[in-house]
Hints:
The protein has seven helices and eight strands. It has helices at 10-24, 47-60, 66-92, 125-147, 155-175, 181-194, 240-247, and strands at residues 4-7, 38-40, 94-96, 101-106, 109-115, 119-122, 205-208, 213-216. The chain is globular.
Amino acid sequence: MSFVQVFMSASSFFSQLYVKSSEITPYLCGYEGEVELKAIRPQQSNAQVVQELYSQIEQRNPEAGSAYWLTRTWSLLCWQPTYLAFISVYGFQRVPTLTQLIQYKTDCFVTGYQFDELTVEQGELDQVIVKAGEQLRRLFDEYREDMANWTRIRPGFADHIFGDAIIACLLQCFYAQQVSREQVFEHARLWLNACRLPLSLTDTLLEKLPSEQLVQVRKSCCLIYKCDGRGLCANCPRLPENKELLAR
């Protein structure tokens, strides 16, 4: 099948996407019409909204430090587009125009979305993976370049978090039986290539012995342990058992 662009109404693909995304988590809620929330919009400066998000995170967790505030802010910008890409690809074998995604900011969080443009593309699975990855790359480059106007955000830092989110979503698809064990590494390479991310991130997918369970040990650390009362995540590279896995 050749790659084609399909113009669909919100009552078809997008209504299904809204239902599916909100089933996965109510925080991933699709909207139609006017929304009375502060928006992160495509192809324009979002410095004011994103700086406000950063400041709210700083005020809530002053003890955690600037590295955590930046990491949390960037992770929040990336989570919805990444989830929507994977839901669209593996749930519908289609890709909406992710570069036209509007996201909404609440207190210390990014939750809720809608699309400026209600178009969708379809094709073979490998084609839609590539298309989705390319669009995520363009969207996140736009976010990072906008943030770089008011804070230091290194491309390598941003890409490690981006890549870890890609692998995490792919692993979720594997456990949901949408991707076979044989496909996981092949699809990881497709996504990483399309997103222009290091293929070495496939090394973060590991078999946990003796069960041979497939797990992820992230490249990046979310730094949540710097917040009072919080510890390391199960897939954190700082955990001793995960360091052992990586050293095998």
